[in-house]
UniProtKB/TrEMBL annotation:
GO molecular function: DNA binding
Organism: Brevundimonas aurantiaca
Protein name: Transcriptional regulator with XRE-family HTH domain
Compositionally biased spans, kind Basic and acidic residues: 132-141, 148-162
Lineage summary: Bacteria, Pseudomonadati, Pseudomonadota, Alphaproteobacteria, Caulobacterales
Region Disordered: start-end pairs: 132-162
Matches recorded under CDD domains: HTH_XRE
Length: 162
């Protein structure tokens, strides 16, 4: 796997590893992504290997080519996760967050100077807790529905009729 612990790898290498994770999750070859990015295969391979400095243009071209969130690629290493980009490729978590943040910044202007850090911590923590709770409830609801459907297909009576 990795020869160096993640904390010793360069940002370019971590972003390249995240890109490889997304590419593989998309079942795309390096050649397919290189072609979609309008790059020679070897140049794409250098990008994915993390050779040189972070190239923001390549990150954004990669995101278009693989339909993923470019900001998750860039910020995942700061969160200590090269998997973050794959995990949020479809939801576009960081892109949505940054768009909403940009709208907030435009509305607030210099009032941003007066924000209480404790209020920010509370607001973000509560929002993420609520998202996690809603996701868990939807997952449980989906599993329950699938279990009941499997039982019906197998000819088992519903539990309330037993």
């Amino acid at each position: 796997m990795l020869s160096d612990p993640p904390e010793k790898l360069s940002d370019a290498r971590l972003i390249g590893l995240a890109a490889r994770t997304v590419r593989r999750a998309r079942n795309m070859t390096a050649q397919q992504v290189a072609t979609a990015m309008n790059l020679p295969l070897r140049t794409y391979e250098y990008f994915e290997a993390g050779a040189g400095r972070v190239n923001l243009d390549y990150v954004h071209r990669f995101a278009v080519a693989t339909n993923c969130d470019p900001w998750s690629l860039l910020l995942g290493p700061s969160l200590g996760s090269i998997e973050f980009a794959r995990q949020t490729a479809d939801s576009k978590l960081m892109l949505i967050f940054l768009i909403a943040l940009g709208e907030f910044v435009r509305k607030m202007g210099d009032r941003l100077l007066t924000l209480d850090p404790r209020a920010l911590i509370e607001a973000f923590t509560e929002t993420f807790r609520k998202l996690e709770e809603e996701n868990r409830a939807k997952s449980e609801e989906t599993e329950s529905w699938l279990d009941a459907g499997r039982d019906r297909l197998a000819g088992k009576p519903p539990e309330d009729e037993v």
